[in-house]
Write a structure and sequence with these properties.
The chain contains five helices and two strands; from the N terminus they run αααααββ. The longest helix has about 35 residues. Helix content is about 75%, strand content about 5%. It has a single domain, classed as nmb1532 protein domain like (Four Helix Bundle (Hemerythrin (Met), subunit A), Up-down Bundle), CATH 1.20.120. It is mainly alpha-helical and about 190 residues long.
C-alpha cells in the first residue's frame, strides 16, 4: 500500500483513530475497484491486475478484522454505556451492523467477477455491468456508513468509553492483527 506523505496515522493506543484510518484504506481500495470498473471492457493490464489483486486481498483479509473490531470490540462496549447520547446512537449502531452484512454479499459478487476477469481476461457485457453495479453499490453504502462512524460513533466512543475499555479494544484489535501493544508503543510481532 502506498505511503501518504503527511497523512496522520494512529496507533493501537487510539483505537477509534485507528478505525478511522482503516476507513481511509477502505476508501482507497474502493477507488481502485472503481478504476478497474472503468477499464473492465478490455483485457487487464499488469497494473490493473496488481491493483485489483491488492484491493481483493485487502477486502478479504484486512476488512473483516475492521468489522470484527467494531462488532466484537467497540459496539458492545458502547452499548454498556448508560448515557443519553449513546442511547440515541443505538439506532445507528444497529444500522451499521446491518450494513456489514449487506456489503458482504456485494463483496462476494465483486470477488467472483474479479476472479473470473483475472482468470479469463474478460467478462461478458452482463458480467461487466454486474461488476460495475456491485462496485457502485459498495461505494454508496460505505460512504454513508463511514460518514456515520467517523462523525458520530467514533467521536462518541472516544469521549464516553473509559480508558480501560479503550485499552481492551486496542488489545483485541492488536490480537486480530498479531501485533503487541506495550505501554504506549505498538510493536509488531515477527513477520508483520
Amino acid at each position: 500500500m502506498p505511503v501518504q506523505i503527511g497523512a496522520k496515522t494512529h496507533s493501537f493506543n487510539d483505537p477509534t483513530g485507528l478505525l478511522s484510518d482503516c476507513h481511509r484504506r477502505i476508501e482507497m481500495f474502493l477507488g481502485t475497484l472503481a478504476a478497474v470498473a472503468e477499464v473492465i471492457d478490455r483485457a487487464p493490464s499488469e497494473e490493473t491486475v496488481q491493483a485489483l489483486q491488492a484491493a481483493l486481498r485487502y477486502f478479504s483479509q484486512a476488512a473483516p478484522k475492521h468489522t470484527a473490531d467494531e462488532e466484537e470490540s467497540l459496539f458492545p462496549r458502547l452499548r454498556e454505556v448508560h448515557d443519553p447520547q449513546v442511547t440515541s446512537a443505538f439506532s445507528a449502531l444497529d444500522r451499521l451492523e446491518k450494513d456489514h452484512e449487506a456489503v458482504s454479499h456485494l463483496h462476494a459478487e465483486v470477488e467472483r467477477l474479479a476472479a473470473q476477469y483475472l482468470a479469463d481476461g474478460s467478462l461478458s457485457v452482463t458480467e461487466r455491468e454486474a461488476f460495475r453495479a456491485a462496485v457502485k453499490n459498495l461505494q454508496e453504502m460505505y460512504k454513508e456508513h463511514i460518514s456515520v462512524e467517523d462523525s458520530i460513533v467514533f467521536p462518541l466512543a472516544a469521549q464516553m468509553l473509559s480508558e480501560s475499555d479503550k485499552a481492551a479494544i486496542a488489545h483485541e484489535m492488536a490480537q486480530r492483527r498479531q501485533a503487541a501493544v506495550v505501554v504506549g508503543i505498538d510493536i509488531p510481532r515477527a513477520g508483520q
